[in-house]
Design a protein that fits this description.
With about 280 residues, the chain is an alpha/beta fold. It has a single domain, classed as Rossmann fold (3-Layer(aba) Sandwich), CATH 3.40.50. The chain has ten helices and eight strands. A hairpin with a 4-residue loop joins strand 7 and strand 8. Helix 4 packs parallel to helix 5 and helix 4 packs across helix 10. It is globular. It binds zinc ion (ZN).
Length: about 280
């Protein structure tokens, strides 16, 4: 267990007070490495809360620069950082909250050529991307690299979140679903609009990003009930939260009994997504 400095004891006092967390849990957070894909609407609150929680290493991957139209929801960025790369802007925000932590910036788009290597450096991945190509890629890469994935999505007033760790087998050989078990293939291009086309309520991003971070912190510390095997569907207009049970698909191309996806080659040469990874 990490020896805490006096400042760390004070900074994390409200965590350490929680019997489920304590010094042991806080130590686990400080030793953890989390990769956040997308420093946008979901990634912004995720990065800020991970930093505040003292997660020792936070990787941020995003190829975009901060734009005025991002600031309605992407709270890691500021008006005076318009034009700066999102990874640098988010790093600035995270370091301002907690200078103790290590931020690794990946100013690139995650793709088949770099995903496995990038993800292998981390313990757990937060997906806040907003296009299906990237979601499937990250699901496949996390399963192949045996990393837990906490995936959130938002559109208009709607949100979804789930935890995928199909690589973890229970004593009886059973395991939870992966993203492909629930969504076997991406909808045809143009069928599901992007946030840029359909809009999104900014504060909903904060809610879903915070929920995503809560699940990540729980997974790191091994406390509470994992969201693996459940899909949370949020209707922001009616303020309705539904928890749906989701099962692994034995015919899943990735985690099923006879997998056809054993590497990331199906993602090679994929067209650039229609919208950027910025939520
Ligand atoms: Zn699967």
């Amino acid at each position: 267990m990490t020896d805490f400095t006096d400042d760390q004891v004070e900074r994390y006092a409200r965590h350490i007070l929680l019997k489920e967390v304590g010094g042991v849990g806080q130590s686990k957070l400080m030793d953890a490495k989390v990769l956040v894909v997308g420093a946008g609407g979901l990634g912004s609150p995720a990065i800020l809360y991970l930093a505040a929680a003292g997660v020792g290493t936070i990787g941020i991957v995003d190829a975009d620069i901060v734009d005025l139209s991002n600031l309605q929801r992407q709270i890691a960025h500021t008006t005076d950082r318009i034009g700066m790369s999102k990874v640098e802007s988010a790093k600035t925000a995270a370091k301002a909250i907690n200078p103790d932590i290590n931020i690794v910036t990946h100013e690139t788009r995650i793709d088949a050529s770099n995903a496995l290597e990038m993800i292998s450096d981390y313990d757990i991945v937060a997906d806040g991307s907003d296009n299906f190509e990237t979601r499937f890629l990250i699901n496949d890469a996390c399963y192949l690299a045996k990393k837990t994935l906490v995936s959130a999505a938002i559109l208009r007033f709607d949100g979804q979140i789930a935890t995928y760790k199909a690589h973890v087998h229970n004593d009886d050989g059973s395991h939870g679903p992966c993203y492909r078990c629930i969504f076997p293939e991406a909808p045809p291009p143009g069928q599901v609009p992007s946030c840029a086309e359909a809009g999104v309520l900014g504060a909903l991003c904060g809610m879903m990003g915070s929920l995503q971070t809560t699940e990540i912190l729980k997974e790191i510390m091994g406390i509470g009930d994992s969201l693996s095997g459940s899909l949370i569907v949020v209707d922001g207009l009616s303020t309705d939260f539904r928890k749906i049970k989701v099962k692994p698909d034995p015919a899943c191309a990735l985690c099923g009994e006879h997998p056809s996806i054993t590497d990331l080659s199906i993602h090679e040469g994929a067209d650039a997504p229609v919208c950027a990874v910025n939520g």
